[in-house]
Specification:
heterodimer, A: 325 residues, mainly alpha, two-stranded antiparallel sheet, 13 helices, 2 strands, globular, B: 535 residues, alpha+beta, D-Maltodextrin-Binding Protein, domain 2, Dipeptide-binding Protein, domain 3, 2 domains, 12-stranded mixed sheet, 4-stranded antiparallel sheet, 17 helices, 22 strands, disordered N terminus
């Protein structure tokens, strides 16, 4: 297990290095941030001052070298617009995104698993067909549109839910969270539902497919023949096997939901990292863009590792070193 | 246990009671402020929030004309010395008195350079070679290199920070944390939560009296539709930049009110002046030599082919003011009798034929798609109008972060000290921040000169010695009547020669609950003390 983890970490460092190259040089190709910040009345001299101030007067290789050096010391630079260390901005806003993504994941599982199970057990009932139709919609309708329709319905027409922002915050173990207050939940409802739709549809389809397949396997028949209660057959024996693909897919999907909750966050003005990234790109805040993308890479690698570990817990066959076959 | 619960509940009510009596204004803003350090950037989203906390020697009234701020009066003592008399009895938010030392400190801080700042107002302070000396606690002299008329207008861009607070602090960081966010303004720093809210509370000791609100909360809502929804369901009280498509319904709705004023932002089309323009070709696709854009008749034809009223009514939801001026009405330098070109496609075709292009030619028309109100749609519409008179126009719009780099120095001839724009025909904008035309004439009509800063925004590289002479003289003329004549003459020359094609001034709109009333500002800022309750 240890060797496996070490190998993964070594791979991750390599991925990270390649990413810094791609991101750093990629961001420098886009455009020059100086012209975004400079006032239109700025003279050549004033432009040169800004260029020097932002450290853009050095050749790009030197900039990259400095950046790598700082990175090794854990310093990802300062945001141009905010003037504060980029990582501190990311940490400040990350809890909001994590909370939104987690709420979406919980929703997806809480609604997706039972619906998928039902559809798998009674594939021909009209309710199952309706469920599958819903999952199809969840995949194919753009999030942007859903978000706006939700806002129009629940906050403008009915006036039940607030349209923008994050609700009242409570501090738990040093992290400010909003899901413990009623106001916070009201703010969380629409964005988390919007964000969960794709995951939910995926859970429904995977659970249904898994259930259909597993029900015909020998071990389920034996279990039934042994007189084990049907609820235990489905809930424990079948479920364990169904969960493996669900965990794999959700693990990957969760990472991208965190990294690219951009659309949902901008519709609902959720103060998370996705919205920060969009704002940063609009003004070419290079340090912030680079820092965020590196942060995302680290997160993806970590989540992948976690999924692999969780896997081996669920399925003994993948357990590294366990020669069960 | 129950008694304890009741006591807590009662305590909660007692704590909540004064809060309920508070007057809170929640503003939904399109762009979020990123820094509360008033010397950090020139982004208007930042400046708008900072102006609630920090003030300038000279304020700008809603029409962008200079009025007394922290200075009660100013006057030139001779051609190169300006005397500013400071307002007595002003205190900082922490109670310390405001004196000339704070002014000197703020100017020195800027002149020394702010480490890491992307765009401090230092260049405004440096214009005219300004130097400053303290005469006594309430008098400051500003000296210039030569006669320099716009000292007061420049200083309206330079916020004053507290010497005893801001000395030695980390730029931006310590302001965002609130530590150094101590100003003299009508509101005091309360909370800065990036992406979510910025709140300020009333300064009971403000020299200007009661700003009208106990607390002001700025909430960033970038999406147009979401910002409107937040206003409709009452999450916010007032929003800036209501989406233009929804303006007619909002204006008809008795529950809401819309405030309107033409902005200082001129939207115009630049025309390249090189003899070969890469994006101007004949109908077979060969670059034309000489470029037809150098012909006055062609430039006029392109202007006459544009139906500015149609753009206003169908694209801008009425939120534009067609123009042929470079500053909006009411600004120093506005020329009354320059009226927008009337739509006249027949005359445009005739002019093209007279210039030797009876079959027209082809151009590529570039523009940003996320900078100005409806910018990409304006580009598409103008392209169609030109195509209709025979100038086959292709459209190329791009995000502002790419557009402005290419517009300013994207051309192949660019080298350090000489920027060559890439585009031949492009839509761009120019804001006249200080309420007067001196630096607008200099910026967009004067010949490009990297050393003097002349023609900074002259991206077509138009050049006219007559205008140059007028503009350079205007920059050194303190007498207002004389300067006005110079500026108006320069504007007239430029417009009659079609140095560029003016389209319109954007019109600033705000939408608010019907229970509020707002004095709109030319410079697009939303300031809480200009919003009042009517009931």
């Amino acid at each position: 297990m240890l060797e496996f983890i070490l190998r993964r970490v070594a791979q991750a460092v390599l991925v990270l290095f390649v990413m810094t190259l791609l991101v750093f040089f990629g961001v420098h190709v886009i455009g020059n941030p100086v012209y975004i910040f400079a006032s239109s009345e700025c003279t050549r001299e004033c432009l040169n001052d800004i260029i020097a101030n932002l450290g853009l007067d050095r050749p790009i290789w030197e900039q990259y070298w400095l950046f790598l050096g700082n990175l090794l010391q854990g310093d990802l630079g300062r945001s141009f617009t905010h003037g504060v260390p980029a990582m501190s901005l990311i940490w400040q806003r990350f809890p909001a995104t994590l909370e939104l993504a987690t709420a979406a994941l919980v929703l997806a599982l809480a609604a997706g698993l039972p619906l998928g199970l039902y559809a798998g057990l009674r594939p021909d009932s009209p309710v199952s067909k309706a469920i599958m139709g819903f999952s199809m919609l969840g995949f194919s309708v753009p999030i942007f549109w859903i978000g706006l329709i939700l806002i129009l319905t629940f906050s403008v027409r009915l006036g039940w839910l607030p349209a923008i922002g994050r609700g009242q915050l409570v501090e738990v173990l040093g992290v400010r969270v909003s899901f413990l207050t009623l106001d916070g939940l009201r703010h969380l409802a629409m964005p988390s539902f919007t964000l969960s739709l794709i995951m939910m549809s995926m859970v429904i389809r995977l659970t249904r497919a898994g259930m259909r397949e597993v029900l015909h396997t020998d071990y389920i028949r034996f279990a039934r023949a042994n007189g084990i209660r049907e609820s235990r057959v489905i809930g424990v024996h079948a479920m364990k096997n169904i969960l493996i693909p669900v965990v794999t897919v959700l693990g990957m999907e969760f990472a991208s939901v965190i990294a690219f909750a951009v659309v949902t966050e901008s519709i609902f003005s959720w103060p998370g990292v996705g919205k920060m990234l969009i704002d940063a790109i609009a003004v070419l805040d290079r340090p912030l863009i680079v820092a965020y993308l590196i942060f995302v890479v680290v997160m993806f690698v970590t989540l992948n590792l976690l999924v692999d570990i969780l896997y081996s817990v669920l399925d003994p066959r993948v357990r590294v070193g366990g020669r069960t076959r | 246990m129950i008694r304890l619960g009741l006591a807590l509940l009662a305590a909660a009510f007692l704590a909540a009671a004064p809060a309920a009596a508070q007057t809170v204004l929640t503003i939904g803003v399109r762009s979020e402020a990123a820094s509360l350090d008033p010397h950090w950037t020139q982004l208007s989203a930042d400046l708008q929030v900072q102006e609630h906390i920090f003030e300038h020697l000279v304020d700008l009234d809603p029409a962008s004309q200079p009025v007394p701020g922290l200075a009660v009066s100013w006057q030139p003592l001779d051609a190169t010395t300006w005397e500013f008399r400071l307002r007595p009895g002003v205190t900082w938010h922490d109670g310390a008195p405001f004196t000339a030392d704070d002014v000197i400190f703020s100017f020195d801080r800027l002149a020394a350079g702010i480490a890491g700042a992307p765009a401090s107002p230092a260049f405004t302070l440096a214009k005219g070679g300004k130097r400053w000396v303290k005469i006594d606690d309430l008098t400051v002299h500003v000296l210039t290199n030569g006669p320099y008329p716009t000292v007061a207008e420049d200083l309206a861009m330079v916020p004053i920070v507290a010497a005893h607070v801001a000395r030695g602090v980390t730029p931006s960081v310590d302001f965002n944390s609130g530590k150094a966010a101590v100003g003299t303004g009508p509101f005091m720093f309360e909370e800065f939560s990036p992406g979510n809210r910025i709140s300020v509370v009333r300064n009971p000791n403000w020299w200007g009296g009661d700003p009208g609100w106990d607390r002001v909360v700025f909430r960033p809502v970038g999406q147009d539709a979401a910002r409107l929804a937040a206003l409709l369901n009452g999450d916010v009280d007032i929003i800036d930049y209501p989406p233009t498509v929804d303006l007619p319904q909002l204006e008809a709705n008795p529950d809401f009110r819309v405030s309107t004023i033409p902005s200082d932002r001129l939207i115009y089309v630049i025309l390249g002046n090189k003899s070969r323009e890469p994006f101007v070709t004949d109908n077979a696709g060969n670059v034309l030599f000489p470029s037809p854009l150098r012909d006055w008749r062609v430039r006029k034809a392109m202007s006459l082919a544009i139906d500015r009223n149609a753009i206003r009514d169908r694209i801008m939801g009425g939120a534009s003011e067609p123009t042929r001026n470079i500053v909006p009405p009411g600004f120093f330098g506005y020329v009354d009798d320059l009226q927008p070109d009337a739509f006249n496609p027949d005359e445009a075709r005739r002019l093209l034929a007279a210039a030797g292009y009876p079959d027209g030619f082809r151009v590529t028309f570039q523009g940003p798609n996320d900078r100005y109100i409806n910018d990409a749609r304006i580009v598409e519409t103008i392209a169609q109008m030109w195509t209709r008179v025979g100038i086959r126009t292709e459209v190329d719009t791009m995000p502002r972060n790419i557009f402005f780099s290419e517009l300013i120095r994207g051309g192949p001839e660019t080298f350090p000290g000489f920027d060559m724009p890439k585009f031949s025909v492009a839509l761009t904008g120019w804001g006249t921040v200080a309420g007067e035309a001196t630096y607008t004439v200099s910026g967009i009509l004067e010949t490009y000169n990297a050393a003097t800063g002349g023609g900074n925004g002259n991206f077509g590289r138009y050049s006219n010695v007559l205008i140059d002479a007028l503009s350079i003289r205007a920059k050194q003329t303190i007498d207002r009547t004389e300067r006005l004549a110079l500026l108006q003459q320069a504007t007239r020359l430029g417009m009659e020669d079609y140095a560029f094609i003016p389209i319109h001034f954007q019109v600033n709109k705000w939408a608010m609950k019907a229970s509020l009333e707002h004095t709109p500002r030319t410079n697009e800022r939303t300031l809480a003390w200009e919003v009042r309750r009517v009931r």
